[in-house]
Amino acid sequence: MQHIKYIALLILSIMILQGCATAVVTGGATGAALIHDRRSTGSVIDDQGIEFKASYTLFNNKEIYDQSHINVTSYNGIVLLTGETLTEELKQKITAEVKSILKVRRVHNELIIAAPSALPSRSSDTWITSKIKTKLTTTSGIDPFYIKVVTEHGVVYLMGLVSRAEANKAVDITASSAGVQRVIKIFEYLD
User: Fold this and answer.
1) Up-side HSE of residue 184: CA atoms within 13 Å toward CB?
2) What pLDDT is recorded for position 14?
3) Which residues pair with 81 in a beta bridge?
4) CB 73 within 8 A of CB 55
5) What is the pLDDT of residue 138?
6) Strand partners, 147
7) In terms of Cα–Cα distance, which of 177, 189, 179 is closest to 139?
8) What topology is assigned to 119-189 in CATH?
9) Burial degree of 61 (CB within 10 A; 0-12, 13-18, 19+)
């Protein structure tokens, strides 16, 4: 534990010397998450890079950006795309763009063909995700750090590196939560 404190202090000192308060807060949160993650540090950094590159690529494609609302989530090189886009052709184009990113192992394109959603719909999904994360946090036998929860249109996607027992428990908790229409597992199993 002492070793971790020294590393955190070193990172904090470097960031302060650079004068970036946002990086200090974000770096501290990321450092704490890295300590308690089944993915390697390299995989966590790769996932953040994948999400950034995919978002940047899609944002810079005017055709896609103007006709879509896309969320990109990466966990251990597995990418989940959620949101809306206007045509099947755009959906396939988005998949191709994301698949071309280095370190992407697989893409789950769950985009629906529809006009981009409004903020109230997204707020409801955020509320559902918060409720599920809270339930996972307070349930014994599940470590919420190992499970990523993404909600879109009331459909909850569960990602992570988990045992089958952890996955089953997480699915049961999620399925019994108010507002959840369906649960889709995108887990990688340890057993």
Assistant:
1) 16
2) 47
3) 72, 109
4) no
5) 95
6) 160
7) 177
8) Histidine-containing Protein; Chain: A; (3.30.1340)
9) middle
Would you give the DSSP letter of residue 153?
Answer: T
- The CATH class, in words, for 41-113 is alpha beta
Torsions phi, psi for 143 (to 5 deg): -105, 110
Is the pLDDT assigned to residue 32 strictly greater than 60?
Answer: no
User: Position of tokens 């990086």?
Assistant: 23
| Confidence (pLDDT) at 3 | 53
- The whole-angstrom separation of Cα 171 and Cα 189 is 14
pLDDT digits (tens, 9 = 90+) for 4-27: 554 544 454 444 444 433 344 444
Listed in order, the ranges of the chain carrying CATH 3.30.1340.30 are 41-113, 119-189
Give CA–CA dist 82/110, Å, rounded: 5
For the stretch 123-140, pLDDT in tens is 899 999 999 999 999 999
Residue that is written with structure tokens 């534990």 in the block: 1
Q: What is the pLDDT of residues 52-93, one digit of tens each?
A: 999 999 999 999 999 999 999 999 999 999 999 999 999 999
> Do residues 144 and 116 make contact, with C-beta atoms less than 8 angstroms apart?
no
